[in-house]
Amino acid sequence: MAKIESYRDLIVWQKAMALVKKVYLLTRQYPREEIYGLTSQMRRAAASVPANIAEGRTRNHRKEFANFLGYARGSLAELQTFLILSVNLEIVERDKIKGLFLDSMELERILSRLSKNLHFKP
Predict the structure, then answer these.
(1) Over the Cα atoms of the chain, what is R_g?
(2) CA angle 108, 23, 107 (to 5 degrees)
(3) Domain positions in the chain
(4) Please, are residues 92 and 86 in contact by the beta-carbon 8 Å criterion?
(5) What is the full DSSP assignment across 51-71?
(6) In angstroms, rounded to a whole number, what is the distance separating the alpha carbons of residues 61 and 88?
(7) How far apart are CA 122 and CA 117, in angstroms?
(8) Does domain 8-120 have CATH number 1.20.1440.60?
(9) Alpha-carbon distance 86 to 97, whole Å?
(10) What confidence category does residue 3 fall into, taking pLDDT thresholds of 50, 70 and 90?
(11) Residue 105 contacts by C-beta under 8 Å, 6 or more apart in sequence?
(12) pTM for this structure?
């Protein structure tokens, strides 16, 4: 196993960055009138996930890192809500967000496990 020297070495951060790219690609297709609405909100929520992972990883204490992972999970929940809203508002078809939604759920599971491990290790 490779030594983790930076937040960039974390698989969870790498997966979060990939998710951000997918959100940006998806929202390019959104109506122009949503640029300051749903498009902006989705991009901000998605970008917040790896940003919080990175900030938490650079903190000095495990508990602080766990807190930032919680913020990242909150941003993921926000993104998932916007994805569902996009379908409900008929901005995008369900099949276009399915893979992105599944990716976000996988990331949510990874973040939860990592957070639990940080809380329970001495």
Answers:
(1) 15
(2) 15
(3) 8-120
(4) yes
(5) HHHHHHHTSSSHHHHHHHHHH
(6) 41
(7) 10
(8) yes
(9) 9
(10) confident
(11) 80
(12) 0.93
